[in-house]
Design a protein that fits this description.
Helices cover about 5% and strands about 35% of the residues. The protein is mainly beta and about 325 residues long. The chain has a single domain (about 1-100, about 120-195, about 255-319), classed as Immunoglobulin-like (Sandwich). The strands form six sheets. Strands 3-4-5-20-19-12-11-8-22-23 form a ten-stranded antiparallel β-barrel. A three-stranded mixed beta sheet has the order 1-24-21, with no helix packed on it. It starts with a helix and ends with a strand. The relative contact order is 0.26.
């Protein structure tokens, strides 16, 4: 029972920002409860969520189990996967979420006092084994979810020892999607870390941690209205404002920008497309060989982070 609780909560233990799903990359025998997903070979990479190419892929519907504040709850996730020879792997993920959450932790000023909104943002995370993680195939997240501490805030997400390594993809409705990406991270024997490059959101908080420092420069236009761009920030100073974002975004570049994303939130549902080259130049990325099968898992977050997520059973991707 302890292992089960670890598996259901470890999706969110990568950092305070996000929980991670767990899975393996080496071809292995199908275990009990594993859901098989087949990536269909197509002539061209899908250009968007409604591309007709998606109709060529079989849709798989997966039941996710809630953890943390979502314990005892279920959520349905649909998955489609396609790939092109020598090109990209594309995933189309869709799940019900009545509320489009993108402004969690936003700073709000009332009188002379700044406070932060409760909540976080919507997101989805995937993880892949780069170098073999001991027992990952049979125990999943339990082997990288080190939860000896009684306080969940002190739990850590890392592999047992070097050279074990995982590849973590994180899509976030505010921190990555407005710039058309998902964050590209890796998990080693120490912690979760970002791949080389730029794009990781920066905290907008003063040294006393009781208020923000920056606002969006009103004379500069962000890619999407409502964003706070690091390159366009302005010290609040004497400016009379009542709200500002808790995170400053920066343009994606380098290995951290390997995963591109598009999304929509319509009729109470998120649809997210993730794309990445089958092979990359990064030694912290999983290199996808379409002659092999890859086990993986998916975690969905509803205006939440850490252990508060909906987690998939073991999944296996084939081509």
């Amino acid at each position: 029972m302890k292992d089960l609780k670890k598996i259901l909560t470890c999706f969110a233990l990568g950092s305070i920002l996000v929980a991670a799903s767990c899975f393996i990359a080496a071809p292995l025998a199908l275990s009990a409860g594993t859901v098989s997903i087949e990536a269909e070979k197509v002539g061209s990479d899908p250009a968007g969520l409604d591309d007709k190419v998606w109709s060529e892929a079989k849709e798989m519907n997966i039941t996710l189990d809630g953890a943390g504040i979502f314990a005892e709850k279920k959520k349905q996730l649909s998955v489609r996967a396609v790939y092109t020879k020598g090109g990209k792997l594309s995933l189309l993920l869709s799940w019900e979420d009545p509320t489009k959450s993108m402004d969690g932790q936003e700073w709000v000023k009332e009188g002379d006092k700044w406070t932060q909104k409760e909540g976080s943002e919507d997101r989805v995370a995937l993880n892949w084994e780069v170098r073999r993680i001991k027992n990952f195939a049979t125990k999943g997240c339990a082997v990288v979810c080190h939860s000896e501490a009684k306080d969940p805030s002190e739990w850590k997400y890392h592999t047992d020892k070097a050279p074990q390594l995982g590849d973590l993809w994180v899509w976030e409705s505010y921190r990555t999607q407005p710039l058309g990406h998902a964050g590209d991270y890796f998990v080693d024997d120490d912690s979760r870390k970002a791949d080389k490059g730029t794009g990781k959101a920066l905290r907008n908080i003063n040294k006393f941690e009781d208020g923000p420092v920056y606002m969006q420069d009103p004379n500069k236009k962000p890619p999407i209205e409502g964003l706070l761009m690091d390159s366009q920030k302005l010290v609040i100073g004497e400016n009379s404002i009542t709200k500002t974002q808790a995170w400053m975004l920066e343009e994606f570049s380098g290995d951290f920008a390997d995963i591109t994303a598009k999304s929509s939130h319509e009729n109470g549902k998120w649809t997210v497309m993730l794309q990445r080259n089958l092979e990359t130049d990064s030694d912290t990325d999983v290199q996808i060989n379409t002659r092999k099968k890859y086990s993986f898992g998916i975690a969905v977050f509803d205006n939440s982070g850490r252990q508060n997520s909906y987690n998939s059973p073991p999944l296996k991707l084939s081509f």
